[in-house]
Amino acid sequence: MYKKKKQNIKITVIVIIVMIILLTISLLGQAPGNQKHNIFKNISMTINKVVMFPFTSLNKEKGKDQSESYTIQKNVNSSLEEEIKELKDMLELNKTMTEYDTVNATILSRNKSYWFNTITIDKGAKQGIKENMAVITKNGFVGKVTKVFNGSSEVKLITSDDINFKVSVAIRTNGVDHYAIMNGYDKETNRIMITGIDKTTVVNKGDIVLTSGLGELFPAGIYVGEVDEIKSDKYNLSKIIYIKTKQNYSDMHYVTVLKVKS
Fold first, then answer.
1. Per-residue pLDDT at 58
2. pTM of the model
3. Considering its fold, how many domains does the chain have in total?
4. Domain that residue 80 falls in
């Protein structure tokens, strides 16, 4: 009976926390810049109270010490801190992308069988989202919009195993841009593959990789990653570049869609 009650409380707390986070996102979208910090602070305090109260009460009923309550609160707070940090990063990102209208979105779902292929976000045609718009996080370019519905959209990630998903990029070496194609993902090493670089072209480990803007599908200059390894193809005619990104694709909650200002 006690275990069942405890489990029900956990579920209730999780539901409340999710609702509060969604409310936070809504408030942040409407609040002036100087009020955002206060919103974060107030929401955090509210969550602390919600989390702590039921577990403390339950432990008192059983005559137990409150160590378990504090452990649960600590774990929940740690998770919430990551969520709030991600929200703050997203707001800071909006300040830097001045040439574009930015639409912040929450990830609604991912296919477990194709975790690194696509995500579904909670913004769509109502918010002006269109196919082929670039999708980013504070860590750089992560994908593009491929399907748009009224209130949601599907985003194909750059980690997708779709061989037809290619993006033009520029590898910046000593101030010179070498254009190439982002072409695949190596799941074993968690690195993006880039092809189309001639074997005589000088590319160094640590070089920055950015979106090129060619084809006018994506804005130029969005950070993608850094060169991690350089190999020759099997015919020794060109180079295969492996780059590391800063994004943890296993743990994303929010993204930003870039719209060209009209």
1. 47
2. 0.66
3. 3
4. 2-96
User: Which residue's entry shows tokens 């090493």?
Assistant: 189
142 with 116: CB under 8 angstroms?
Answer: no
Tokens of 29: 């979208």
DSSP reduced 3-state for 86: helix
| Both tokens assigned to 166 | 């290619």
CATH number, domain containing residue 172: 2.40.10.350
The DSSP symbol for 187 reads T
CA distance readout (Å), 99 to 78, 212, 220: 34, 16, 11
Closest CA to 5 of 77, 65, 61, 76: 61
β pairing state of 238-244 and 191-198: antiparallel
Of 211, 214, 240, the closest CA to residue 228 belongs to 240
How far lies 118's CA from each of 121, 140, 165, in Å? 10, 17, 12
Q: First vs last Cα of the chain: how many Å apart?
A: 60
> DSSP letters along 97-158, please?
-TTEEEEEEEEEEE-GGGTTTEEEES--GGGT--TT-EEEETTEEEEEEEEE-SS-EEEEET
What are the helix and strand counts (H, E) for the chain?
3, 12
Among residues 45, 73, 96, the one where a domain terminates is 96
Tens of pLDDT, residue by residue over 151-184, are 999 999 999 988 888 899 999 998 899 999 998 8
User: The domain that contains 109 carries what CATH number?
Assistant: 2.40.10.340
Take residue 58 and report the two structure tokens written for it: 């339950």
